[in-house]
Amino acid sequence: MTQRVALVTGAMGGLGTAICQELAKAGHKVVASYHPQFDNKDAWLAEMAEAGFKDFVCVAGDVSSLEDCQKMVAEAEAACGQVDILINNAGITRDRMFAKMERDGWDAVIATNLTSLFNMTKQVSAKMAERGWGRIVNISSVNGVKGQAGQTNYSAAKAGVIGFSKALAAELAAKGVTVNVICPGYVATKMVMAIKPEVLQSIIDTVPMKRLAKPEEIGGACAYLASDLAAFMTGATMNINGGLYYQ
Ligand code: CAA
Question: CA 96, CA 114: separation in Å to the nearest integer?
Answer without folding.
Answer: 18
